[in-house]
């Protein structure tokens, strides 16, 4: 890799560290290519990405970044998982690490907040953005459904009364 390629990788990593809601660092030593592809696919489904980069280049990219604290985790065979959603990447990596003991979570960062292993697991336990939106929509929609039911109920009652009267008359 020549100097220009290294500079490009550092720039890309800098953008990742700057724009991601969460970055999780994990050791992937022993994962097969198929297992790594599976992790990448699951991360893509959740709206995140997985990136393997040289630790030295990642450390250079971390300079003056809010998540610079994750530099301490960048030793050995590490993989960076990240997403704009502050929960998605942590959820996917945590779930995958439960299935496959070869993937070991080292830590991560959420904005400028450093996360240890327990912190990453705590973030993974939080509801995702989509789950929160669905719950808010449900809360907003419930009163409207109740009002519609209350408004429609008298008409339904009148119709059933008229139907009963008609049956008795016949």
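Q: What amino acid sequence fits the structure above?
A:
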């Amino acid at each position: 890799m020549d100097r220009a390629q290294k500079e490009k990788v550092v720039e890309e990593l800098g953008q990742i560290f700057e724009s991601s809601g969460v970055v999780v660092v994990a050791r992937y030593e022993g994962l097969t290519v198929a297992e790594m592809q599976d992790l990448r696919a699951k991360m893509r489904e959740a709206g995140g990405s997985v990136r393997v980069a040289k630790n030295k280049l990642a450390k250079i990219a971390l300079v003056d970044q809010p998540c610079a604290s994750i530099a301490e985790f960048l030793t050995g065979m590490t993989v960076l998982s990240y997403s704009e959603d502050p929960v998605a990447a942590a959820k996917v990596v945590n779930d995958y690490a439960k299935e496959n003991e070869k993937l070991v979570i080292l830590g991560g960062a959420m904005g400028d907040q450093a996360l240890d292993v327990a912190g990453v697991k705590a973030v993974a336990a939080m509801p995702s953005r989509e789950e929160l939106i669905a719950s808010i929509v449900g809360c907003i929609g419930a009163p409207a459904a109740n009002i519609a039911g209350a408004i429609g109920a008298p008409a339904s009652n009148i119709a059933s009364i008229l139907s009963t009267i008609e049956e008795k008359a016949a």
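Q: And what stands out in the fold?
A: The chain is about 60% helix and 15% strand.
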